[in-house]
Write a structure and sequence with these properties.
There is one protein chain. The chain is α/β, with parallel strands linked by helices. The protein has four domains: about 120 residues, DnaA, N-terminal domain (GMP Synthetase, Chain A, domain 3, 2-Layer Sandwich); about 150 residues, P-loop containing nucleotide triphosphate hydrolases (Rossmann fold); about 40 residues, no CATH class; about 100 residues, Chromosomal Replication Initiator Protein Dnaa, Chain: A (Orthogonal Bundle), CATH 1.10.1750. About 55% of the residues lie in helices and about 10% in strands. It is built from 21 helices and eight strands. The chain has a five-stranded parallel sheet with strand order 5-6-7-4-8, sandwiched between helices. Helix 1 runs antiparallel to helix 4, helix 18 crosses helix 20 and helix 19 packs across helix 20. The N and C termini lie far apart (about 55 Å). Bound molecules: adenosine-5'-diphosphate (ADP) and magnesium ion.
Length: about 475
C-alpha cells in the first residue's frame, strides 16, 4: 500500500511535464512534501523561501493544484511551510520575471494566497439551475423508443439518489436526452423548491473547472458542485481526453454518490463505447442504470407529431402528418424543424389552404438543404476559421500555407492547425496536406504547443475565444 508521500515524486513529474525546464528548476526543484492533515484535505509543502512560495502561487497556482489533485484527490487546501530563509538562492532572472508579471497583471498582486478568494465570477449563482422551462414531463411524448428512459426518469423523481444512481441516458442527437434529464430537474424542483439542482453541459463544466484552476479557485468550484442535490451533466462524451477535468468530476461524482445525491448523465454512446474516458469513471457510469433513447419508429414519430401539431395549433390532416412522419425518420429535432417551416408557410399565406403540394415542397427543400448543409458546414467553417486567424494575426492566407518561419506567421499557422484539429476534427495528416504538404509530426507539434500554452497562460484561451468570435 503506497503511503501518500510516495506519490509526491509523481506530482513533481507531472509538474515537470507542464513547466519548462528552467522554470521547473528555479521554482519546483526544492519543493518538498511535508504532510497532509485534516483527513487528507490539506497538504503542506515545504519551500525554501517566501519568495518561492509567492512565485508559485502567482504563476503556477493552476498547475500545482492540478498536479496535486491528480495524486491527492481529497486535497482542497495547499499550504506552504518555509523551510529556510534563502532568498538569495532565487535566480535574479526569475525575480525580474515575477516583477514583470505582477506589473502586467496587477490583480495578481492582491491575490497571493490560494485560500483567500471566496467569490467567483464564472459559477452561476446558487439559485440558477439552467433548466429550460419547456423541457417538462408534461411536454414529453412517451413512445416505444423512449419508454424505458422515461419510466426510469420518473422513478428517479420519486426516489432520488436511491433507486438508480447514476442514471446514464444515451442516444443520438435530437432524441430527447436533454429534455428528459431536465424534466427530472423541473419535477424535483416542483416537489421541493429548495432543492439545489444544477444542469450543466459537460463542456461548461470543463470550462469552469479550467477557469477555477487558473484562478486558484478550486475550493469554490468543489464546494459548488459537491453541494448539489441533483446534478445533471449533459453530453459527458465531451470530457474525453480531458484528464484533469475527469479526475475532478470523478471526485465530485463520488462525493455526491456517497451522500445519495442523484446524478443523471447523458452521452451519445453507452459507457463501454466512449473513448478517452478513464476506466474508473466508466465503471461509475455503469453502477446505476444505463438506458438508451432509440430513434423513434414511424408510430412514435406520428405520436410526437400529433402532440406538437396540436400544441402549435397547426391545421394539418392526419394524412399530412403521416407524410411528414414517413419522410423524416432521423430525430425529433428534425421533426420540429419541419413543423416550424410549415408554421412559417401558413403564417405567410393565412388565407389559402395549406395543400399537400405545399407540404411536399417543404419536405423536399428541407431534405435538400439538410444534405447540402451537412456537406457544406465543415468546408465553410474551415474557411471562416482560416479568415478569422488571418485577420487576427494580420497575415495572408498564402503566407500561412507557405514556408515562412516569421514569428507571427508561424504562430498563426500553429493556432490554425490547432483549430483544425480540435474544432473541426481533421486528422494530423490531412491538416499537414492543407498546409503545403507538411509532415503530420509538424502538425502534432504545433497543436500540442498550443495546448501547452493554453494550460499555462489564460491569454491564449482569450485569443482562441476572440478568433472564434471573428469566425462566426
Ligand atoms: P438530445 O439532447 O438527445 O440531442 P433534445 O432533448 O435536445 O435531444 O431534443 C431535441 C428536441 O426534440 C427538443 O426540442 C425536445 O423538446 C424535442 N423532443 C425530443 N423528444 C421528445 C419527446 N419525446 N416529446 C416531445 N419533444 C421531444
Ligand atoms: Mg442534448
Amino acid at each position: 500500500m503506497p503511503t501518500t508521500h510516495n506519490y509526491w515524486p509523481l506530482v513533481l513529474d507531472n509538474l515537470k511535464s507542464q513547466i519548462s525546464g528552467s522554470n521547473y528548476k528555479a521554482w519546483f526543484s526544492r519543493l518538498e512534501f511535508v504532510s497532509t492533515s485534516n483527513q487528507g484535505r490539506k497538504i503542506i509543502l515545504g519551500v525554501p523561501s517566501l519568495f518561492n512560495k509567492n512565485y508559485i502561487e502567482n504563476r503556477y497556482k493552476g498547475e500545482l493544484k492540478d498536479a496535486v489533485s491528480k495524486y491527492f484527490p481529497q486535497v482542497i487546501h495547499i499550504d506552504f511551510q518555509i523551510n529556510k530563509t534563502e532568498e538569495e538562492i532565487t535566480p535574479v532572472v526569475a525575480q525580474q520575471e515575477i516583477i514583470a508579471n505582477l506589473e502586467e497583471h496587477p490583480r495578481l498582486q492582491a491575490n497571493l494566497s490560494i485560500d483567500q478568494e471566496k467569490t467567483s465570477t464564472y459559477l452561476p449563482k446558487k439559485n440558477i439551475n439552467n433548466l429550460n422551462p419547456r423541457y417538462t414531463f408534461e411536454n414529453f411524448v412517451v413512445a416505444e423508443h423512449n419508454e424505458m428512459a422515461a419510466n426510469i426518469s420518473k422513478a428517479v423523481v420519486d426516489q432520488p439518489g436511491v433507486l438508480y444512481n447514476p442514471v446514464f441516458l444515451y442516444g443520438g442527437v435530437g432524441l430527447g436526452k436533454t429534455h428528459l434529464m431536465q424534466a427530472v430537474g423541473q419535477k424535483m424542483l416542483e416537489k421541493n423548491p429548495s432543492y439545489n439542482i444544477k444542469y450543466i453541459p459537460s463542456e461548461t463544466f470543463l470550462n469552469q473547472f479550467q477557469l477555477a484552476l487558473r484562478k486558484g479557485e478550486m475550493e469554490q468550484f468543489k464546494n459548488y458542485y459537491r453541494n448539489v442535490d441533483l446534478l445533471l451533466i449533459d453530453d459527458i462524451q465531451f470530457l474525453a481526453g480531458k484528464e484533469s477535468t475527469q479526475t475532478e468530476f470523478f471526485h465530485t461524482f463520488n462525493t455526491l454518490h456517497q451522500l445519495n445525491k442523484q446524478i443523471i448523465l447523458s452521452s451519445d454512446k453507452q459507457p463501454s463505447e466512449i473513448k478517452g474516458i478513464e476506466e474508473r469513471l466508466l465503471s461509475r457510469f455503469n453502477m446505476g442504470m444505463v438506458v438508451d433513447i432509440a430513434k423513434p419508429d414511424l408510430e412514435s414519430r406520428i405520436a410526437i407529431l400529433n402532440y406538437k401539431v396540436e400544441q402549435m395549433n397547426l391545421k394539418l390532416t392526419s394524412d399530412q402528418i403521416y407524410l411528414v412522419a414517413s419522410a423524416i425518420d432521423t430525430n425529433v429535432r428534425e421533426l420540429e424543424g419541419v413543423l416550424n417551416k410549415i408554421k412559417g408557410k401558413m403564417m405567410f399565406s393565412p388565407e389559402s389552404e395549406f395543400s399537400d403540394n405545399d407540404l411536399e415542397h417543404i419536405l423536399i427543400t428541407h431534405k435538400k438543404t439538410n444534405l447540402s448543409a451537412h456537406l457544406n458546414s465543415r468546408t465553410s467553417q474551415t474557411d471562416r476559421i482560416f479568415q478569422a486567424v488571418c485577420k487576427f494575426f494580420s497575415v495572408e492566407k498564402k503566407d500561412i500555407v507557405g514556408p515562412s518561419r516569421q514569428q507571427n506567421i508561424a504562430l498563426a499557422r500553429q493556432f490554425l492547425m490547432w483549430f483544425f484539429k480540435h474544432e473541426l476534427g481533421y486528422s494530423y495528416v490531412s491538416i499537414g496536406k492543407m498546409f503545403g504538404d507538411r509532415d503530420h509530426s509538424t502538425v502534432m507539434h504545433a497543436t500540442s504547443k498550443i495546448d501547452g500554452l493554453r494550460k499555462r497562460d489564460f491569454r491564449i484561451q482569450e485569443k482562441i475565444n476572440l478568433i472564434k468570435e471573428l469566425a462566426i
